[in-house]
Amino acid sequence: MTSSASTATPTKHAFDRRVEDVRSPKSDINALILDYLTMEGYPNAAANFSREANLQPHQDGASIIARQEIQNCIHGGNIQTAIETLNDFDPEILDEDKALHFALLRLQLVELIRTCNASGGDIQPALKFATEQLGPRAPTNPKFLEDLERTMALLLFPSESLEPQLADLLKPGLRREVADNVNRAILERQSQRREAAIRQLVRMRVWAENTAREKRKNLPERLDIGLNGEEPDSPSRQILQGENDHEPMITT
To answer: Which residues form the CTLH domain (predicted)?
Structure first.
């Protein structure tokens, strides 16, 4: 007699059953998605989604496009263009935020050093830029001075021999950090929140789960974030899968 494996459906955890009983209104989910697309700088996707979901746009399209252009420049290493575009958009942002201005100039120095190291070329442009743009600003803040000294150390060692702390300056993470800070500064200047609401919700969810586990509450071993409940043809699902737009993703 041949035995067969059991096909009984696994019993769901009590927590999972409680979650299934909670249904967030689709209008709330759509508003959350539109908020993300707007705050993170996806103008075409935000416009398409607002039409398909019958929602009012959260921000003027020109503002979103400007933020996207600035972020794309930073992620591409075109820092001078990013600074000029930001100044054209709102010249007071860098005038009032000295730390942000220094961070952009420091990143521009990193890009000059990167170009110099890659080509084995003249280091004079990097030295001249550091002397004229960063040198006068560094003494005004101990952190500025420390950041400048670390950055200049990139000129002293081959890129393959850098200590991890210095090597990190040449990785995409620094561009992402600066781009994110610029985006937040623009949003704050426009009296907006500094980040998309979903980022706050995710942090809150992580905190709630960690707190519950610390108190030994009865939870499943693994909790999904819960983004798989949309219908395949819903506007929010299409946006998340990139079907409505072909804008380059900005990793922030």
So the answer is: 63-120
